[in-house]
Amino acid sequence: MTKQIAVYKRAEQRSAMFRLMLSLIVVQLANDDAVGASVRYQDFLQCGPGAGRAARPAGALTPPGARPERARTREPGFMNADEGKAAHTLLEAFESGEQARLTPIITKAPFIYLDNEIARTARQLKVAQAGAAGDDLR
Fold first, then answer.
1. I need a labelling partner for 92 at 20 to 30 A (CA). Which of 3, 30, 54, 78 fits?
2. Domain containing 91 — which CATH number?
C-alpha cells in the first residue's frame, strides 16, 4: 500500500492517495496496532498542499499571466481532506476507548467509498475497552 501511495503522490492523484492512506490506517487498527496507525497518521499529515512540489524561492516574483502560488493551496492536504478528518476521529475513538464514538463514523463517507474489503474491515473494528485486560487479573 505504501508503494501505491507514492505512485499516487507522484501522479498528483490526491483523492486516491487519501483513500489509500485511510485504508492503511484501518488495516493497522484491525491488526491491533493503534500506535502504528497513529504514527502513520502523523506521517500522512505531511502530505499537505503542494507537498512534493518544488517551492518557489522566497521573494521570487510570479511571472505575468501565471496564477499566484496561493491558488494551489485550495488543494486539501490529508489533514483537511474528508479522509484525514475521518482518520483523526477514528484514532480519537480508539484512544478514548469508546465504541459509541466509532460506530457512527465508520458507516458514513468516506468509509463507504473505500475498497469493499477495507470498508467491511472498518465496519468490524472494535475499540478495546479501557481496563478490559486488567479485569482478568482480579
1. 3
2. 1.25.40.10
